[in-house]
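ERR on first pass: missing label on line 2. Operator R.T. fixed the label and resubmitted. Corrected input:
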Amino acid sequence: MSTTLTCPMTAPPNPVEDLLRTERMPHIWCPGCGIGTTVNCFSRALIDSKIDLQNLSIVSGIGCTGRVAGYVNLDSFHTTHGRAIPFATGLKLASPETTVVVYSGDGDLFAIGGNHLIHAARRNLDLKVICVNNLTYAMTGGQTGPATPLDVITATAPYGTYDPAFNLPALVEAAGAVYVARWTTFHVRQLAKSMSEIFKKKGFCFIEIVSPCPTLYQRRNKMGDGLDAMKYYKECSKTKNGCPTNEVGLTKSGEIIVGKFVDRERPDFTTMMRNYLEHQLGDEYIPAEGPECF
Amino acid sequence: MHADPMGVLTGSHFLDGDHAACEGALAAGARFAAGYPITPSTEVVERFSQRAPKIGATFIQMEDELAASIAILGAAWGGVKAFTVTSGPGFSLMMEHIGYAAMTETPCVFIDVQRGGPSTGLPTLPAQADMMQVKWGSHGDYEIIALCPNSPQECFDLTIKAFNFSEQYRVPVFVMLDEVVGHMTEKVVIPRASDIEIEPRRWTSQDKSSFRLFAPVDGEQVPEMTRVGEGYNVHVTGLTHDERGYPNMTPAMQDKLVKRLISKIRDNADKICLTEQHDIEGADVVVVSYGITSRVAQRAIELARAEGLRVGSLRLLTAWPFPEHIIRPLAAKVKGLVVPELNLGQMVREVERCAAGQCRVAHVGHAGGTVHQPEEILKAIREVAR
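pass 2 clean. output:
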């Protein structure tokens, strides 16, 4: 007895395909990695929010998540390690009408790029920062990062980690972000909704996505594969919108608090700059209106 | 095309080199600067921050030099002309983005007001000790352009030139001041905007579906450019990339890309290398100098001539690419070349390489902190003339 599997000759097109550089597939990410899931959510958010794609740029740093910029069919910049945010700062100020998304990993944004991140949040630059937190430096082989929890084996902590991790939402809130949320790659609908929300919100917006790295992080810590990570996220995540961010720190295998933690109003950098200079200089002030033909 | 009158402060001014360089940037069309304070360069962005809001430009003080040096690259892709300013220790921090700018062919200008090093060194005193760093400081093979003004007037003129070269060749260009040139105050004449030639960005008008961001057109070596928001959906990466900008990390692609990045400058060295030559014909000795040192050398040359020595002067306004095509034939004709520098031997290595034993090469240098005494250079002229 045999069963013949048939495939319809014309599968319905995947609506996110137009947003991807399909000629660059397959991508580099490992089986079970969560980054592709986040890109799918991002693509759906772009569609759902009906944002003007021509005026949207994406900027990545270096690392596994840093490769996102290369796979989305938008104006896209794969910059240097840790410097996606200052690149995005120059881009946004030179071209104020552009929506600028920074899409990078925990190591890139919070270790080598940590100084830039807190200053962009302090200034409340109108940047949409999406941070895929896989708890490790994955591209280089799974070394300890600034978000690696305590008591975890990594390539550079063969006996386990003993220095505390950053609590990412608490750090960016303290630095001045106006929107802070965390989801896991299990929470695809909530994540896509949060992404849609930040496209509409002016100022420094931050979404942390807890995401599996089966190849390096989970394997060393006997935490199973990508599916096991989904089970963990499903069973141990608790949605607490508005939860104080000092209560949302991550541990190796404990509860993961998810939700929208911060959504507040504060004038963004460009608004503050323009209002202040106009007040000080009056008619002498000529705001930068973006690129001119030169 | 001509300069935008908005940024041109036409008239005669009494300016120091830092301020004059800022006016040069504004005249060239720079409408974005990112900086981080460091002596003796800060006056450039201080002036820019005062002028910017009145001419539709933007200044942002970043959190460090790494940030400043990539914010300008973001701004360039946002569609404006952009620059940053620094000195030795800050320049060391910017090396990463010199490589990124070279690899991504992003037009940008760096003004480096050199001070004594290594490390924190001599914050308020001059040196010419970043001359090798500017060429070799970032990893990998690449070419840049570096210009060396010796007066506030040239700070203005060569900063315009720097922006023009950066647009023409899509390459980072450096204006290498030193503390003395940066802080000396002299007359600076700023022409009318209609008398200032400006190189426009190489904006493409190619079809969106077939445009290749890193494909030179019609046998040229420099590709056309666009900006965000034009619908080209560009991809820009520091990885080795193909003509679409997509990562392609093969030895063959690396060879093709890096060779083009280098040859677009080296093949045009005769157009980029600006020099000032005096009394070269028939000279026994030629003093090869650049920046502030050229002004001290002038006095030494006059003293040597008074002694009856036949001495010429070759001043390098362009230090990089190095004017090999000028030094090689010159070395074949003279007894010796004298190279005064405020360092312990940097550009003299290039002179020696090009002279290749055809004549004597004498370096006159010290570790920075003050300019030369003309007598030190005179002594070297006498020795090589023997």
